[in-house]
Amino acid sequence: MSESAAAGLPPRHPEGGFAADPLGVLEEGHRRNGPVFRMPVDGVETVLVGTWAGLGELFGAERGRLEVLNTALVHDLFGRALFNLTADRHSEARRRLRPALSGRELPGYVPALLEVAEPVAARWARHGAGDLHGEVRELTGAMSARVLLGIAPAEAEAVRFAADFEAFVEATGAPPGRARFTSARYWAGRGARRRLHALFARRAAAVRREPDGSALAVLVAAFTGAPAAVGPLEDHLLALLIAARETTASLVTWCLVELAGHDEHARAAAAEARTVAAEPQSVVRRDALPVLRAVLAETQRLHSPNVLSVRQAVCPVTLGGHLVPAGTRVAYSPSAGHFDPAVFPRPRDFRPDRFLAGQANASRLWAFGGGAHACLGRPLAELMTLTALACALRQGLPRLPAGPPSRIRYRPAKAPIDPLPFTLECQEPAS
Ligand code: HEM
């Protein structure tokens, strides 16, 4: 008898509470049922996979058996973007996108990222921010536009781009099925998509003539002569811009929130941030800025931006010894295993020094996912986050005058629900 014939369906966990406290529900579900169980999520029966061992098995079984499950709306808006592709087309598109987002291209992005982040941090130090997450979202949007498209914040095109991008983002919240066709924001988003594609094509033609130090020149070269099946670069650019902004904004926000509540770590991180002015390239050197990197790792652990990544079984698959029939919705949480006390003692505490002292290993973190669809932008996301943190902490120590966030939403990325007043308290008198 085959393994799957012997296996039964995964155990069922009671419904309820997921929207308000997804991590609590997942933790309880795995404590009671082990790495694999099922329960309704957003009204759809879903097999949830968690724990370190569970994710290892999931990623091992993924190719050819599990596909990213995207709605009709996502297929419509994003076309042949990476996460809508499967099999060889998907691998080929990843191969072409990767070089612009990692490795030897990153040092070239540092001056542009600093140019975008420095004035924003100086403004926070002078006037504070009425809503930390809202402002950080604008910052990561501007950083992504600068690095991916070469659009500087002072350019006239920056305003048009930001307005169209916002309309496109709004459309991703339209009804996912046929009802989208009756939604005004869906149609506004389709119009914005058309204009954004035209803008990408114009900028691509310009960097062909004169490279501008952005990722676009590398991407244009990588997609010249690419087979149509890997999708047009315009579709991939929209996906990269979306993937980059919300998640990175979430990570930067939670780093600053945690540092505001932990002065000793904030002071150590600020001392390191001040060295970045003398050596800007330290933000891309893996052996530099150990305290800031430990803050980054500990925040990924405690505040993974994504709560669930969703797949569909395209054939029967066995996970954790249980049968998962074809057509089943399967999901994993990138936080799976982040709160295991055996791996991370006192898992609820913010203790970046656990990564400094070598008690914890950042490779045990899944915040950027894993397997066939693991985040392609991780190196760039970490670079943007470290740059934003270094610029802010150089100005002063983070403070939350109205206290930490009391209400949190988990989707599309973990963020405070209410406006969060924020200031940077200067440590030395201005000279
Ligand atoms: C803190 C920031 C970020 C986090 C936490 C994050 C997290 C993730 C996760 C968990 C996945 C896997 C989704 C899945 O399994 O279905 C993913 C995929 C992806 N990410 Fe990120 N991401 C971040 C930033 C970025 C940036 C800056 C970019 C690009 C500029 C990017 C581009 C992508 C792309 C293209 C995929 C899809 C990969 C594929 O389908 O093959 N991400 N990300």
Q: Can you walk me through this structure?
A:
The chain has 431 residues and is of the alpha+beta class. It has a single domain, classed as Cytochrome p450. The chain has 15 helices and 11 strands. A 5-stranded mixed sheet has the order 1-2-7-4-3. A two-stranded antiparallel ribbon has the order 5-6. It has a two-stranded antiparallel ribbon with strand order 8-11. Helix 5 runs antiparallel to helix 10 and helix 11 crosses helix 13. The N terminus is likely disordered. Bound molecules: protoporphyrin IX containing FE.
Largest sheet geometry: 5 strands, mixed
CATH class: Mainly Alpha
Oligomeric state: single chain
| C-alpha end-to-end distance | 78 Å
The number of E-state strands comes to: 11
Level-2 CATH architecture: Orthogonal Bundle
Averaged pLDDT, please?
94
Helix content: 40-55%
What is the domain tally? Answer: 1
Fold-level CATH name = Cytochrome p450
- Helix tally equals 15
Following the backbone from N to C, one meets helices and strands in this order, namely: HHEEHEHHHHHHHHHHEEEEHHEEEE
List keywords for this structure.
431 residues, Cytochrome p450, globular, disordered N terminus
Kindly summarize this structure in a few lines:
By secondary structure, the chain is α+β, with helices and mostly antiparallel strands.
SSE topology:
Blueprint: H1 3-6, H2 22-33, E1 36-41, E2 44-49, H3 51-61, E3 66-68, H4 72-78, H5 87-101, H6 106-127, H7 132-149, H8 156-171, H9 184-209, H10 215-223, H11 233-261, H12 263-274, H13 290-302, E4 309-313, E5 317-319, E6 322-324, E7 329-332, H14 353-356, H15 378-395, E8 397-399, E9 408-409, E10 415-416, E11 423-425
Parallel strand pairs: 2-7
Antiparallel strand pairs: 1-2, 3-4, 4-7, 5-6, 8-11, 9-10
Helix pairs in contact: 5-10, 6-7, 6-15, 7-11, 8-9, 9-10, 9-11, 11-13, 11-15, 12-13, 12-15
